[in-house]
């Protein structure tokens, strides 16, 4: 339990630092995302996934294509490949390096950035050779925060809002009520 708590504390700190850089890359103040997404009372979720060897991997799927709620997803793997991301219409295998964090942009960062950052559509496939394990940590706004495009990035003429605002808790409810299906939930908040 202590190890999990420490891991969560450290990944939260990494996530907040990454979000400062992302805020600045958008031309916003460094603490913009942290402040507007109420990260002082933000929400963090940790999920451990295990995919045992499958005798017929071509007939099974580890996790279907989806994007994640929240701002960022920090993923650690055990060195066994199986993660794929959609890039230019093709599924690309992602190398699995031990002791390495992969950082995925998640749906709420796409909304806040008004589409300048795109959430990553990904899936997990199974293998017939080895057990794959992963540990995902979602860095997310507080549950009461309304996630919407940053006003500073909008211009009604050239760059209008591409998403409607929605409370994080309502977004999660939508996600739970849908099966994993690409970016189906994100598509519901697109204008």
Number of strands: 10
Unreliable parts? none
**Strand fraction:** 25-35%
Ends distance: 43 Å
* Arithmetic mean pLDDT: 93
Large-scale geometry: globular
Helix content: 25-40%
The description of the largest β-sheet is: 4 strands, antiparallel
The class by helix and strand makeup works out as: alpha+beta
| Rg (CA only) | 17 Å
Q: Given the structure, what is the number of helices?
A: 5
Strand order in the sheet with the most strands: 1-8-3-6
What letter string, H or E per element, gives the SSE order? HHEEEEEEHEEEEHH
For the structure shown, list the relevant keywords:
about 190 residues, alpha+beta, 4-stranded antiparallel beta sheet, 10 strands, about 25% helix
């Amino acid at each position: 339990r202590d190890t999990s708590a420490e891991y969560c504390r450290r990944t939260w700190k990494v996530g907040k630092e990454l979000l400062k850089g992302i805020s600045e890359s958008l031309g916003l103040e460094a603490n913009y995302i942290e402040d507007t997404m109420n990260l002082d009372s933000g929400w963090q979720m940790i999920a451990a996934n295990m995919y045992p060897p499958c005798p017929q991997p071509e007939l099974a799927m580890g996790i279907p294509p989806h994007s994640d709620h929240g701002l960022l997803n920090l993923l650690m793997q055990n060195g066994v490949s199986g993660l794929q991301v959609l890039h230019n219409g093709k599924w690309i295998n992602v190398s699995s390096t031990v002791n390495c964090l992969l950082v995925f942009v998640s749906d709420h960062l796409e909304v806040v950035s008004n589409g300048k950052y795109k959430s990553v559509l990904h899936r997990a496939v199974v293998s017939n050779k080895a057990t794959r394990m992963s540990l995902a940590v979602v860095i997310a706004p507080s549950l009461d925060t309304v996630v919407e495009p940053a006003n500073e990035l909008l211009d009604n003429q050239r760059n209008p809002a591409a998403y409607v605002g929605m409370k994080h808790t309502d977004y999660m409810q939508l996600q739970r009520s849908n099966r994993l299906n690409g970016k189906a939930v994100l598509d519901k908040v697109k204008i």
